[in-house]
């Protein structure tokens, strides 16, 4: 962090935290109404009930199979939901065998952000109605219809208008966020905001979430060196868009004479920001919650440092701390099992002579396996009842976890986690053991 000269933030679910359950429930219900009105879906879908636990970060929607899937870092399907339930191993194998899933395929839709929760939940719920016999479109058409109305309610202001009417219901006020921003400013770092939201919505949210806790500045517009609205990320990081300056009082815009100064803008590009503030990619850290829009494209094309915010990581860490004693039991069982397996391998050199010993070892191993299975069941009770651990697909790292590790320099549950570290902290990667090093 010592070498970082400027730190940038996405707004939604990064700088401004939403009450996810309330917001996604609103999205869920709004989607249902649009499907009924615009797509002529049966009114029976109004009876569906929102359940946030049915989704997790990093899942994918497969419109060909009508499923929500969780894949490993190698692209193999490890978990699969069709309708209301997780399919068993055999059924999942029948659907996917050992096929590698490519997220770029047209029928695959990554569900990686907090804003994607209602999307995946509603798709699964309507698929279940279809499985129950209700006359509904095909799986691909169903996915397309939900995507259409989802894009519509995000662009026509339907959701944002509801948020603006009742900020306290949907937005979290957190004084620690302002403490972090003022701490970073005090350490002589530039701080900036890049959001795809328009100026009006940005101002309303920042007035509510930031202004009440500011101590050393008049308001959020003085606290931030630069605020960019309607940024059109991820293109913002790779294209040179037109930039306009916004009058903070009237909201009116005017052309900009470069170099840009501290202020509030619409559009532009990361390259303009670098050039006008004389910064290099490695001087800038940008924090966001969208793995593709805020992290992957940015890292690939701009060379900025990247930070990933995963809100559900907070409860995940709490669960991991609770299951440590269970994990220790599993590890001890595995040590015993490996020892028996090593004995077994030695005896297999002469099967006929060692048949009795081999059979006894198999019995011991089977007994250990039963013990391990019981502990695994206890372990899994502490995580998402449908999808298990956030960053794992079975025992392997999930595809989502792999993206985070490859493209995010750091990741966290909230930007306020940075308060636990000095602005001069050096974050070092842990040595990761390869198979032959174990």
List keywords for this structure.
438 residues, 3 domains, Rossmann fold, alpha/beta
Question: In a nutshell, what does this entry contain?
Answer:
The protein contains 15 helices and 18 strands. The protein has 438 residues and is of the alpha/beta class.
Structural write-up:
The longest helix is centred in the C-terminal third of the chain and has 26 residues, at 355-380. α1 packs across α3 (117-131) and α11 (291-301) packs across α15 (399-407). The mean pLDDT is 94. With 438 residues, the chain is an alpha/beta fold. The relative contact order is 0.14. It contains 15 helices and 18 strands. It has helices at 20-38, 89-96, 117-131, 139-155, 158-165, 167-170, 175-186, 199-209, 220-223, 270-276, 291-301, 313-322, 324-347, 355-380, 399-407; strands spanning 6-9, 17-18, 59-62, 67-71, 77-82, 85-86, 108-111, 171-172, 190-194, 226-229, 243-246, 253-255, 263-267, 284-288, 305-309, 392-393, 396-397, 410-412. The strands form four sheets. Strands 12-11-13-10-9-1-14-15-18 form a nine-stranded mixed β-sheet. A five-stranded antiparallel β-sheet has the order 6-5-4-3-7. Strands 2-8 form a two-stranded antiparallel ribbon. 42% of the residues lie in helices and 15% in strands. It has three domains: 6-17 and 168-309, 3-Layer(aba) Sandwich (Rossmann fold); 19-165, no CATH class; 324-381.
């Amino acid at each position: 962090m010592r070498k970082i000269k400027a730190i940038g933030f996405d707004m939604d679910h990064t700088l401004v935290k939403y009450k996810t359950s309330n917001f996604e429930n609103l999205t869920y219900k709004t989607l249902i109404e649009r499907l009924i009105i615009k797509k002529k879906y049966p009114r029976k879908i109004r009876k569906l009930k929102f359940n946030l636990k049915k989704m997790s970060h990093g899942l994918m929607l497969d419109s060909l199979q009508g499923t929500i899937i969780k894949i490993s870092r190698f692209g193999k399907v490890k978990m699969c939901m069709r309708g209301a339930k997780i399919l068993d191993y055999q059924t999942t194998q029948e659907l996917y065998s050992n096929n590698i899933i490519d997220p770029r395929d047209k029928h695959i839709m990554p569900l990686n952000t907090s804003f994607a929760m209602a999307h995946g939940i509603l798709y699964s719920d309507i698929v279940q109605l279809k499985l129950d016999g209700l006359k509904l479109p095909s799986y691909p058409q169903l996915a397309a219809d939900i995507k259409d109305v989802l894009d519509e309610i995000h662009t026509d202001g339907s959701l944002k208008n509801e948020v603006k009417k009742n900020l306290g219901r949907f937005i979290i006020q957190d004084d620690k966020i302002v403490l972090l921003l003022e701490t970073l400013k005090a350490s002589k770092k530039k701080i900036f905001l890049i959001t795809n939201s328009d100026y009006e919505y940005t101002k309303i949210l920042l007035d509510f979430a930031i202004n009440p806790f500011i101590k050393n500045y008049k308001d959020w517009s003085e606290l931030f060196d630069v605020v960019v609205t309607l940024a059109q990320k991820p293109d913002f990081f790779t294209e040179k868009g037109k930039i306009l300056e916004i009058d903070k009082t009237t909201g009116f815009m005017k052309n900009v004479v470069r170099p840009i100064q501290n202020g509030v803008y619409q559009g532009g590009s990361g390259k303009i920001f670098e050039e006008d503030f004389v910064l290099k990619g490695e001087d800038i850290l940008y924090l966001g919650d969208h793995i593709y829009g805020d992290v992957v494209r940015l890292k690939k094309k701009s060379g900025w440092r990247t930070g990933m915010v995963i809100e559900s990581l907070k409860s995940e860490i709490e669960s991991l701390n609770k299951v440590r004693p269970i994990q220790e039991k599993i590890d001890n069982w595995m040590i015993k099992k490996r020892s028996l397996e090593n004995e077994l391998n030695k005896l297999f050199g002469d099967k006929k002579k060692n048949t009795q010993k081999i059979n006894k070892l198999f019995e011991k191993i089977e007994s250990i396996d039963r013990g391990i299975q019981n502990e695994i069941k206890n372990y899994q009770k502490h995580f998402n009842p449908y999808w298990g651990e956030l960053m794992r697909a079975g025992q392997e790292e999930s595809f989502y976890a792999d993206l985070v590790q490859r493209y995010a320099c750091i990741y966290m549950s909230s930007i306020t986690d940075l308060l636990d570290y000095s602005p001069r902290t050096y974050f070092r990667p842990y040595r990761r053991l390869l198979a032959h090093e174990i």
